[in-house]
Amino acid sequence: MPQSADQIKDHVSLFKEPEYQEMFARKREQFECPHPPERVAEVEQWMKSWDYREKNLSREALTVNPAKACQPLGAVFCAAGFEGMLSFIHGSQGCTAYFRSHLSRHFKEPSSAVSSNMTEDAAVFGGLNNMLDGLQNAHQLYKPKAIAVGTTCMAEVIGDDLQAFIAKAKQQGSVPEDFDVPYAHTPSFIGSHVTGYDNMLEGILKHYWEGATREPGETLNIIPGFDGFCVGNIRELKRMMGLMGVEATIMCDPSDVYDMPSDGTFTMYSGGTPIEAVKGGVNAKATISLQEYCSKKSLTLAESSGQEVAAFNYPLGVAATDEFLMKVSAFTGKPIPAQLELERGRLIDAMTDSMAYVHGKTFTVFGDPDFCIGVTRFLLELGAEPVHILSSNGSKAWAKKMKAIVTASPYGKRAQVWPGNDLWHLRSFLHTEPTDLMIGSSYGKYLERDCGVPLIRLSFPIFDRHHHHRFPIFGYQGGLQMLVRILDKVFDGLDAQTNIAGENDMSFDLTR
Ligand code: SF4
Question: Do you know which PANTHER family this protein is assigned to (predicted)?
Fold first, then answer.
């Protein structure tokens, strides 16, 4: 045997052992019925052609590797941002395991969520009993302050009515009558995790705001939106608001629960927006969203309660951060402090120092709609040229906005905006019109290998690199962090191209 209890091998070396190599060869011959290698190579080449790209773009009834997740994942993320709130997913156990593992793999932290575990009988007769038992178990076992209920496809297809089920559960004593159970229907066959975030946030705000008498105040609510970098970004946001002396409630703050210290004990709930602050949020002067496409319904709710509202698109870099801070200043009357002006100047200095290495470089950007807008704006500020901007969960309205941004810049003339396309489309784009670099999630690593376009991991999910989410990419500091990540990739590429001694290493420079 290639390994034993005394000598455990990682799969990287284990699968190179002769036993495994022989097994793989046998499997290929006996079960895979492979075509001759020449035919495989021929088809492989064709799949990189414009001809294949046209065929790929004409497919209608099939999505391959979309850069998005389903609604309930966004709902679980949203509920994690509130004090003592437990996610309860009404539907399949397997879906809930996927949401937990997806979030855990990205944040490298436990991600708690329970499921009503619907199976075949519930699919036929409805999931009421699962809800009654599940709420009771969750309440007694995990002692949450509130339970936020979302749904999977299964519950939505059979049409379970959450409002009626929760009322029944309270009537029957599964949870006390006055226990908080906000909810949102999160059907996965519409929208994406971004929609699920918005639906759940709207559900939570409705639960705590409806029926309250609004007493207009001077505070702000800030909705950060679904964000794989929430740990670093929300801390940066709080720091900036602190420097301005602005009293703001972060509506959904999972920065602590996704960044727990190791102290020998497991804590299920940590941090989160305090429930009293959520209740008080109805009195805010204004609600600002940092991600327009994550908060359409929530902002409509805030507006209907009498608040002013404003939405941004993942503000990072110079102009987008300026706009955000000026809006905060306009709402609160607080000036932008000298410290933030200093940080702005330092970012511009860093961008100028490194301009020669980024200016004119071509980029592919893929991810959520707001992320794509924020990153593209920053690239244009750097004089970089976005060529493919793809958002699987981007709408036609998003594409129109994106096109207006790129056409307003001399560096955006070559940009092509791809709403609703997937990463298999992106493969065709990169084979036919490659770019120097690509910004996106870990799922881009297959494109990097296949198309030879270096990937900078800056969105959700990042599974194969650790801890980047602890550093901000919002604001001026975020722009700096993003600039460094881009430059490191550029310099690593330059070094790799110039490292053959005596051949090309006259450019293997110590100083870049
Ligand atoms: S798309 Fe539907 S079936 Fe798939 S994980 Fe999401 S809720 Fe579950």
Answer: LIGHT-INDEPENDENT PROTOCHLOROPHYLLIDE REDUCTASE SUBUNIT B
Q: What is the DSSP letter of 282?
A: G
Ligand 1 site: residues with CB under 6 angstroms?
70, 72, 92, 95, 98, 152-153, 188
Of 240, 278, 238, 234, which Cα lies nearest the Cα of 254? 234
Asked whether the whole model's pTM tops 0.70, one would answer yes
Whether residue 2 has pLDDT greater than 80? no
Return the amino acid letter for 133: D
CB 69 within 8 A of CB 463: no
Sheet holding 220-223, edge to edge: 248-250, 220-223, 286-289, 308-311
CA of 75 to the centre of ligand 1 (A): 13
Ligand 1 centre and the CA of 462: distance in Å?
Answer: 20
* Tokens linked to 413: 């003339």
What integer pLDDT is reported at residue 155 of this predicted model? 94
Of these residues, 40, 114, 153, 328, which one is catalytic? 153
On the question of pLDDT at 125 being above 90, the answer is no
User: Which tokens belong to 114?
Assistant: 């329970």
Q: How confident is the model at residue 33 (pLDDT cuts 50, 70, 90)?
A: confident
The stretch 7-19 carries a mean pLDDT of 90
Closest atom of ligand 1 relative to the 151 alpha carbon: 7
- Say yes or no to pLDDT of 88 above 70: yes
Buried b (16+ CB within 10 A) or exposed e, 227-247: bbbbbbbbbbbbebbebbebe
Is the pLDDT at 172 greater than 80? The verdict is yes
Q: What is the DSSP string of 382-395?
A: TT-EEEEEEETT--
pLDDT at 1: 67
Top mean pLDDT of 11-15, 18-22, 271-275, 502-506 is at 271-275
The strand pair at 416-419 and 385-391 is best described as parallel
CA 195–ligand 1 middle distance (angstroms): 14
The 8-class DSSP code of residue 294 comes to G
All structural domains of the chain, each given as residue ranges with its CATH number in brackets, are 71-209 (3.40.50.1980), 220-260+267-341 (3.40.50.1980), 355-497 (3.40.50.1980)
Report the b/e string of 461-473 with b at 16+ CB within 10 A: bbbeeeebbebbb
